[in-house]
Amino acid sequence: MNRHYLILSGLVVLGILYPQAFPGYLSVAITLLLFAGWATAWDILGGWAGQVSLGHASFVGLGGYFVAVGASQYGIAPWWAVAMALVAAAVLAYLWGRLTFKLTGPYFTLSTIAIAEILRLVAINEGWLTGGATGVFIMSLPEPFGLDLFARQTNYYLALAFAALTVLTVIAMSRNKFGYQLRAVREDEDSAMASGINPTTVKLKAFMLSGALTALGGGIYAIFLSFLEPHVIFYLLLSVQIALTAIIGGRGTIWGPCVGALLVVGSGEVFRTTFAEANMLIYGLLIMLVVMFLPRGIVGEPARYLIRRAYAKRAQS
Amino acid sequence: MLDYVSFLQNLSNGLLIGGVYALIGVGLTLVFGVMKTINFAHGDFVILGMYCAVLLNTLFGWDPYLTLLVAMPLGFLTGAILQRLVLSRLVEAPPESSLLVTLGLALVIGNILLLTFGAEPQSVHVAYASSTLSLGEISLSVILLLAGLATLIVITALYAILNHTELGRSIRATADNRLGAELVGINTRWIEAVVFGIGMALAVTAGVVLIPLLFATPTFSGAIFTLKAFVVTVLGGLGNIGAAIAGGLLLGVVEVLGASYLTSDYRDAYGLLVFLLVLLLRPEGLFGKTVKRV
Description:
The complex is a heterodimer.
Chain A: H1 3-21, H2 26-48, H3 57-74, H4 78-100, H5 105-125, H6 127-130, E1 136-137, H7 152-175, H8 177-187, H9 189-194, H10 199-225, E2 227-228, H11 230-233, H12 236-249, H13 256-270, H14 272-275, H15 280-293, H16 300-316
Antiparallel strand pairs in A: 1-2
Helix pairs in contact in A: 1-7, 2-7, 2-10, 2-12, 2-13, 3-4, 3-10, 4-10, 7-8, 7-10, 8-10, 12-13, 12-15
Chain B: H1 2-35, H2 42-60, H3 64-85, H4 96-117, E1 132-135, E2 138-141, H5 142-164, H6 166-176, H7 178-183, H8 188-210, H9 220-236, H10 241-261, H11 267-281
Antiparallel strand pairs in B: 1-2
Helix pairs in contact in B: 1-5, 1-8, 1-9, 1-10, 2-3, 2-4, 2-8, 2-9, 3-8, 5-6, 5-8, 6-8, 9-10, 9-11, 10-11
C-alpha cells in the first residue's frame, strides 16, 4: 500500500465531514475541489508529460455544454450527458494532439491558446448548438433516488468525488508503467524513443485522459452554476487559472495541484473584498514569486530537497 | 466598379491597421530574437500605453500624440527595469519559466489597471476623430492615417538604430550568437535590458496610437493584443523583424477582408486560423529561411 492512498482516504473522510462542520462555506469548498480536480487533471499533461497547455478551458466548456444543452434542449439526463462528454473530450484531445504534438515547448503552448480561442468563437457564434453568446440555463434536472442535483450539498459531494477520482488516477499512474513512460518523454523524447517508447502515443494518451477528466469536472461545474456563458467557461483566463494553479503548487507532483488550489482559492477568498473583480492579481503575483524563488512549485521544491537528502544519506552509509 | 472601390477601401484600412499590428509584433519579435523569451505581457504593455494616454488626457488635456513624448521614454525605462529585476533572474531556469513569469506580469498589470481605473472602457476623444481624407473614391480615416504614419516613423527609426549604430550592431550580434557577442566584448546582459526596454516602448507607442480608435479595457484586451502579436510574429517567423512587419500588414488585411467578405462573427478567428496553419505547416514562418530539420 502506498502512503498516498492513505493520505487521500484521510482527506476524503475529512471532506465528507466538512458540510456538517461548515455548512455555510459550501460554495468556496466546491470551487476549491473543482480547481483541485482540474489542476490535477491538467497536470497529467502539463506536469507528468511536460506539455504546458493553456487551452484546458475548452474541455471544461465541452463538459459543461454537454450537460447544459443536453438537459435544456434534449432532456438528456446529466449522467448520460457526462458520459458522452467524456468520449467527446477524449476524441477532441486526440485530434488536438494529433495536430499539434509535433510542436514543442512554447510553440505547443501558443497553439493550444489558438485552438481554444477558435473553439470559444465557435461556441459564441454557433447559437443553434450552444445558445450563443447569451448562454444556456439549466431549468430542471431529473432527481435520481430523490436527490436534488441543484442542492449545494449534492454539488459539494459531486465535486469531492471528482477531485478524489482525479487524485486517485494520478496516484495510480505515478507508480505504473504509463506514469514512468510519461516522465521519460518529459525528460528527453529521444532517450524515451531509444528505450522503445513512442512519445506521440504516450502524449496523446495523457492528453485524452487529462481532457476527459477536465470535461467531467466541467459537467459538475455546469450543474453547480446552472447557467453557462461561453465568454466565461471557454475563456483563456480559465485555462490560465487551471494551469497556474497546478504550476504554483508544483508540476509533476501528486499533491502539488491540490495545494495550489488550496492556496489560490483560499487567498482569493481572503482578499475577496480587497480586490473585488481583480482577483486574478493573486494568480499573477503568486506565479511570479513561485517561478522566481521556487521554480519547482510549493510542493515540488521541498519534495526535491527531501529526496536529495535521502539519496545523500544512503550514499554516505 | 463599386466592388473594386470598396475592395481598395478595405485593403487600405487593413494595411493601416496592420501597420499598428506590425508595431506591436516587432517589439515581441525583437525581444524573442535576443532573449529567446516569449513575452506574454506584451499586449498588456499596449494597454498600459493606452491608459497612459487616457490619464494624461484627463489630467492635462494632452493630445495622445503629445503623450508619446512621455510614454515612450517611460515605457523604455520600465521595460529595462523589469528585465533587470525579474527576467534576468531566470537565465538558469527551465525554458518555460520566462513564459510563466511574463504571464504573471500580464495578470498583475491588467488587474492593477482594473483596480486603478475601474472596469468600464475608456477612450480619448480627439477633434479629428471622425474626419477623413478622400483619395479619389477611397476615404481614409485621419486617425488611421496618423497611426500608420507614426508606425512608419517608429519602425524606420528602429531600422536605423539596428543597422547604422554601434548599439544596433551589438543587438544584432547578441541575437545571432550570444557567446560570440560576449567574446568580442559586448555586455549582453545590458543589451537584453535595452532590448526589453525597446520592446516595451514600441508596445506602449502602439497603445497610444490606437487609443483614439479603440476603447481601453483593463483585463480583456491585453490578452487579445498579446494573441495578435503572436499571430503577427509567428506569421513572419519568430525573431525576424522585417517579416514581423509583413506579418502585421498581412494580419490587418486578412482580418478586414475576412470580416467584410466572409462573416464578421469570426473576425478574430481568421488570424488565429492562419496562425495555426503557419505554426503547423511552416514553423519557421512564412518569410523565414527554411532550415532542414534532422
